[in-house]
Amino acid sequence: MTEFSRIEEFIQSYADNISKVLGLDVTILDEQGIRVSGTGYYQDLIGLPAPEGSFFRMILQTGQPGMIFDMKKNESECGNCKFLQQCRELATIGFPVHKREKTVGVIGIIGFSPEQKEKMLHHSEKWMPFLQHTSSLIEHKLLELDAEREKSCNIQEEMPQASVHPVYFAQLIGAETGLRDVIAKAKKVTNSISTVLIRGESGTGKELLAKAIHCESARSRQPFVAVNCAAIPETLLESELFGYEGGAFTGSRREGKPGKFELAHKGTIFLDEVGDIPLSLQPKLLRVLQEKTVDRVGGVKTLGVDVRVIAATHRDLESMVREGTFREDLYYRLNVIPLRLKPLRERTEDIALYLQHFLYRYGTLLQKGKLELEAQLVQRLRAYEWPGNIRQLENAVEYMVNMAEGQVIGNEELPEYLLFEDESSTAGSDLGLEKLVAEYERSILQRYLNAGNYGQDKAAIANELRISLSTLYRKMEKYGLEKG
Ligand SMILES: Nc1ncnc2c1ncn2[C@@H]1O[C@H](COP(=O)(O)OP(=O)(O)OP(=O)(O)O)[C@@H](O)[C@H]1O
């Protein structure tokens, strides 16, 4: 069994998509050079091996992409192919699929007519990022399956119900250059001990990136401990982070309790919403970062900890430093390797990719088969602002897949808050897009806060809206909302 035999259907759907988008035939080969999928001419060749000495076999060996535009003359690429004389291909592009650096397959694009060859000559360079992305999606799919099997990465969360699945860089979808640069930088520092500070709005993938850094590092079998500094009440945060000795305060456990830094010993601690850490605790955090030692609350001993720190925040720390609400020395200590994730509205070119990705994921998960979105809907969703970023888009797709009755999703399946019918009422408004989106967001939150079925439970509301509790509080503060 090869890597690809586990995901044949998935691979065929990608071959179909590439073929549709480029208007050319596509074939995908596994690591043994067997065609696992194909369109047009190649459909009948599925299951058969590519000829020995052929161009695609060379790509499997070298792991490098390549293109040829005249088979007969390309002695180096096709010279050893025993079908060279019969070959009808006028142009061919081959792109490798890797799994953790190993070449496990090839995506091939073929032109048979002079027009197709011309098109490939002109556009092949532009297609490379698209092929790179498709290749990453296949890798991601393979890793996801591995992850389900292995559950190898030791991710621990403060919330027991939270995900414990390992995360790899290949799971970070997106072809936009800025995102690829951030991922490339993150890859460089996986095994460094330097502190990473991830910035970005809610739902842009800060936590996912932090987990990927941990899971791809040499520390992956040690704990990844996530702490949301905004979700823990100020009075408890110190003992949560640094632990306490027995009898340190009324109600404390007799035997004491280790803090998150101790629990993350030899692994990684993820300090989410680090900008919300109270000023009073900042000196203590700075000391831990500098000296790698922890003093439990009420304790006398100093404990050494070997912890990689990854911090994240949506806050403007520079302004906070200027205003005196965040210590400058701590800011510099945290901001050693800064990584910034852009909001989705600043990389709209990736929206269609995310739609496709989540459509496939939820279509499979909810056993709805192969689904697609009406073309006009994709246009509209691309134009939407996505204030909740990728998380919001993922939830919207999950909703739509649940609602889907046929294989094509249209306006009727949109979640209520995304219904574009309001366009008419807001058309001509002079509010501007940002304000209109904010107005939408405010009204959604207001509706949830007023709904009787949530009682006083803001955590349930945050959960339902798939945002963190701290994000909910922040947004409530922003819009001046209180539970109605
Ligand atoms: N590049 C990406 N590719 C695929 N999925 C992504 C990507 N970025 C984020 N997601 C998905 O979006 C959701 C939100 O991601 P994540 O929790 O990492 O965001 P965050 O920035 O930490 O949000 P918050 O600040 O609200 O905690 C998750 O379901 C995650 O899997």
From TrEMBL:
Q: Where are the transmembrane segments?
A: none
What SMART domains does the entry give? Answer: AAA (SM00382)
Question: Any idea which UniProt keywords this protein has?
Answer: ATP-binding, DNA-binding, Nucleotide-binding, Transcription, Transcription regulation
GO biological process terms held by the UniProt record: regulation of DNA-templated transcription
Question: Recorded GO terms, molecular function?
Answer: ATP binding; sequence-specific DNA binding
Q: Which domain of life is it from?
A: Bacteria
Query: In this protein, which residues make up the domain named Sigma-54 factor interaction?
Result: 172-402
Cited PROSITE patterns:
SIGMA54_INTERACT_1 (PS00675), SIGMA54_INTERACT_2 (PS00676), SIGMA54_INTERACT_3 (PS00688), SIGMA54_INTERACT_4 (PS50045)
Per UniProt, what is one Pfam family of this protein? Sigma54_activat
Say yes or no: keyword Cell membrane present. no
List the PANTHER family hit by this protein, alphabetically. Answer: C4-DICARBOXYLATE TRANSPORT TRANSCRIPTIONAL REGULATORY PROTEIN DCTD, TRANSCRIPTIONAL REGULATORY PROTEIN
Identification of the protein by name? Transcriptional regulator
Which species does the entry assign this protein to?
A: Brevibacillus formosus
